[in-house]
Design goal:
Strand order of the largest sheet: 1-12-3-8-9-10-5-6
Distance between the termini: 14 Å
Structural class: mainly beta
Number of helices: 2
Number of strands: 27
Largest sheet: 8 strands, antiparallel
Order of helices and strands: EEEEEEEEEEEEHEEEEEEEEEEEEHEEE
């Protein structure tokens, strides 16, 4: 569902009789004001609401409020403002704490209907209330004035104005997806599983396709391939969407399985779809990591070390790391490759899986952060401190050495036999590679993801 888009935030730094929002953009359907208020007088006070500087008698309102032991309702027509309070306003006395209020203003930007307001709030002492108000004007709202009837707003009051996009109008452009999100510019259709995307009109869309991650064995699983098509023309027809599953974890003798490919319609780039990540190499035989969207990490054997699998070109991912051979019971698997930080078509590099050493298994390669803004809007990807990554490689496994950690972007951690220290699978819907095992089954790769983005 869409989130509120911040327009303006006001905090009173000193006592104030009023707060004003001006030059309100006309690009949204509804407005919401979220306020935290406190007055400076010894009694609760109401708050007035006016639009576009209009002080005439075109306002009316009806409210209901109660304290738990008593309740009242009232209505006032032909008022010079919408009077929210005192209970509805959430304006406590100076000795009380701040009270919350939420104002919802529907269809503020149209020029054909009168403007309706809903309010809910409480003061911190004992009163809650609801209110509906009306401004009998068809003018679009360009400014809002909030003023207190008795005393002043105390310092520290906050007023946050948000715009709500016209969801119904956006949704008519296309259908399909597990979830649909919006920001101030785009609509995002998110496919966490296979489905159908159907535009209702011609669109120019950006399409992000991530394949499933490879499963770990002795080496970490490679991340799924990632590709983006920019400004791709779509017509009013159905487009099948395939979201690849993660590959299964391998064993001591069996490499991890490759992740499954993902696809939007029939899109191809250089003759290939986004490919699933390569499985990690085993630890006694079949040591090499498998080639995939990103390559799996190599597995270690006695006095032998498997090499990492290659990542597919162009720009889908990177190679897995080389294992460190077992000596005196010590060894480590290579990390699975990550898809890198570049947009599709650019050479990867930063996502190469880590090479194991005598003291540590290889870490999974870092995934892409180029699409972090997509992840923030759609709540997908691996969120690390507010930055969103996709397609991290899985960490290598070990017996005595430090196990490998998963790459940023949903890569799973490797298993360490001594302890033991458990590993993890690739994160769902990131294309992350699975963490490696050691004398135990490796971990599964994470499933893929498809996001279709187009202008609202």
């Amino acid at each position: 569902m869409p989130t509120y888009t911040p327009i303006q935030s006001i905090t009173t730094s000193s006592v104030s009789t009023e707060v004003n929002f001006s030059n309100i953009p006309q690009t949204y359907q509804d407005l919401v004001i979220v306020a935290s208020m406190k007055g400076t007088t010894g009694t609760n006070s109401g708050v007035g609401l006016q639009f576009n500087g209009d002080t005439s008698s075109l306002y009316s309102f009806t409210y209901a409020q109660g304290t738990g032991s008593a309740a009242e309702t009232a209505r006032l027509a032909n008022s010079s403002s919408i009077n929210v309070g005192p209970g509805n306003a959430g304006i406590p006395t100076a000795s009380n704490t701040f009270g919350p209020s939420v104002f919802s203003i529907q269809n503020y930007s149209n020029t054909t209907t009168n403007k309706a307001v809903m309010h809910r709030g409480n003061n911190s002492a004992n009163m809650v209330g609801l209110l509906t108000g009306l401004w009998r004007s068809t003018s679009a709202i360009t400014s809002i004035r909030l003023f207190i009837y008795a005393g002043n707003f105390d310092s520290g009051c906050t007023f946050d104005l948000y715009g709500i996009s016209p969801v119904a109008a956006q949704a008519t452009k296309a259908s399909g997806g597990t979830e649909i999100y919006y920001d101030s510019t785009y609509a995002y259709h998110v496919f966490k599983g296979s489905g159908i995307f159907t535009p209702n009109q011609s669109l120019s869309a950006d399409i992000l396709v991530i394949a499933g991650g490879g499963g770990g064995a002795g080496g970490g699983g490679g991340a799924g391939g990632l590709l983006e098509w920019q400004s791709w023309p779509l017509t009013a027809q159905s487009y099948p969407v395939v979201v690849g599953a993660g590959g299964p974890g391998g064993t001591d003798t069996l490499q991890g399985g490759n992740g499954q490919d993902s696809q939007f319609g029939t899109l191809v780039l250089a003759g290939t779809y986004p490919r699933g990540g390569g499985g990690g190499g085993a630890i006694t035989t079949n040591l090499s990591g498998i080639t995939g969207g990103s390559g799996g990490g190599g597995g270690p054997a006695d006095l032998s070390a498997g090499s990492g699998g290659s990542g597919l070109a162009p720009g889908q991912g990177n190679s897995g790391g080389t294992a460190f051979q077992r000596q005196a019971g010590n060894g480590g698997g290579g990390g699975g490759g990550g898809c890198g930080n570049q947009p599709s078509g650019s050479a990867g590099g930063v996502g190469t899986g880590g090479t194991a050493t005598s003291g540590a298994a290889g870490n999974g390669g870092r995934g892409a952060l180029y699409y972090s803004s997509w992840g923030a809007v759609t709540n997908t990807g691996h969120n690390v401190g507010g930055t969103y990554y996709y397609c991290g490689g899985g960490g290598g496994g070990s017996n005595l050495a430090t196990r490998g950690t998963g790459g940023l972007g949903g890569g799973g951690d490797g298993y360490k036999q001594t302890g033991p220290v458990l590993g993890s699978s690739g994160m769902t819907n990131t294309g992350g590679g699975g963490g490696a095992g050691w004398n135990t089954t490796g971990y599964n790769g994470g499933s893929g993801l498809v996001i279709v983005r187009y202008p609202k």
